[in-house]
Design goal:
There is one protein chain. 40% of the residues lie in helices and 13% in strands. With 364 residues, it is of the alpha+beta class. It folds into three domains: 121 residues, no CATH class; 109 residues, no CATH class; 115 residues, Cysteine proteinases (Cathepsin B, Chain A, Alpha-Beta Complex), CATH 3.90.70. It has a seven-stranded antiparallel β-sheet. Strands 1-2-3 form a three-stranded antiparallel β-sheet. β6 and β7 form a beta hairpin.
Length: 364
């Protein structure tokens, strides 16, 4: 019931994003939407039905922000295997009673709704309104696809013009994405709910949301039929391998250089000179430095062999200001996801590097 009530709380607070009081409007609003979303008319709103609503282009604006929170809660309560219980109108009534009695201890989802509404307002629906994609505009959405975004960031950093040539809008409103290691992929335009819930470049254009959806579409095709997802990015929402994404984006294999390898500095320098795609992950055998998270994948943008400093990009695109000495404990100054660390600190914090191998085609 906790998961169900969490989802219900998301719906209740979604209407707060419309400028209404959740305790007085939630039942009215959800009842108004429920019949349309409950496609089999069984009185239960399932994950599959939510996903079909997510893909509905007519769900826009604040309604999309509300649906995005429901979808976000669904993702956070699942690992891609466990099913989220369906939602009923009786659950709504129970939630309202507990909330009015002050017995609900769920998170404050109203802030999430405000976030999604601002995100929808800030995101351009043009593909490249600023002529080129920009790494510093990449912001990871509510899905665990840092492994994908790190490679995208590295590719954009290498050659934003070439990257942009790989995405085009078709006359029927769909988009074609061209990969180096896969046939062209055609996807429908992201809906407002997809824009809200998934990764975004905001005012820099719709390119990131489109490319991410195309990556999810490819991943779905390689998933056993019984486990394929309705919403494409769910197929990459719970993690994956950055090396697979390098293979998809470039058609090339990937080599790994361990942090203990005496050739790490040379590999970083060669990767920078050759403009190879590179990524890294945080070491799991240390406490997380402030501002960084374990299990996360980061893009390696460059290595300065003279200063012996590594430029790293965090797909979350966040800022961090250390509250103490810069280093392993308090973290590193970060702006729009970019941080620079000494090679010594890189070895202390990160677990080697994955580097695109242009001489070796990716395995089919």
């Amino acid at each position: 019931m906790k998961v169900v009530l969490t989802v219900i709380a998301a719906i209740a607070l979604a209407r707060a994003a419309l400028g209404q009081q959740p305790t007085s409007s939630v039942l009215t609003v959800v009842r108004a939407e429920f019949a349309g979303w409950d496609r089999d008319r069984d009185g239960k709103l399932t994950v599959a039905e939510v996903d079909l609503a997510v893909l509905d282009p007519t769900v826009r604006g604040a309604r999309a922000a509300a649906l995005a929170v429901i979808k976000a809660i669904e993702r956070r309560n699942s690992d891609g295997e466990r099913a989220t219980p369906p939602l009923t109108l009786a659950d709504l009534a129970q939630y309202e009673a507990e909330r009015n009695a002050g017995e609900s201890d769920d998170d404050d989802y109203e802030e999430w709704f405000d976030h999604y509404r601002r995100k929808l307002d800030a995101t351009s629906r043009e593909l490249f309104p600023q002529s080129e994609p920009r790494v510093l505009r990449i912001k990871q959405g509510d899905l665990g696809d840092c492994f994908c975004l790190a490679v995208i960031a590295s590719a954009v950093h290498r050659d934003p013009t070439a990257f942009a040539r790989g995405i085009s809008r078709n006359a029927d409103g769909t988009y074609t994405v061209r990969f180096g290691g896969h046939a062209d992929v055609v996807i429908t335009a992201p809906t407002d709910t997809e824009i809200a819930i998934n990764s975004s470049a905001r005012e820099n254009g719709l390119w990131l949301t489109v490319y991410e959806k195309a990556c999810g579409t490819v991943a779905n095709r390689f998933t056993p039929p019984g486990k394929r997802t309705v919403e494409p990015t769910d197929s990459i929402a719970y993690g994956g391998l950055a090396s697979d994404v390098i293979a998809l984006v470039t058609g090339h294999a990937c080599q790994s250089v361990e942090r203990t390898d005496g050739e790490l500095a040379q590999a970083l320098a060669a990767g920078t000179r050759g403009r190879h795609l590179m990524y890294t992950t945080l070491r799991r055998d240390i406490d997380e430095p402030a501002g960084l998270i374990s299990g996360h994948v980061y893009a390696v943008l460059a290595y300065d062999s003279v200063a012996r400093r590594v430029t790293v990009f965090d797909p979350r695109g966040h800022d961090h200001r250390p509250t103490g000495d810069v280093g392993v404990e308090h973290g590193f100054p970060t702006r729009d996801g970019v941080l620079e660390v000494s090679l010594d600190d890189f070895v202390r914090v990160f677990d080697g590097v994955g580097i695109e191998d242009r001489d070796t085609p990716a395995a089919k």
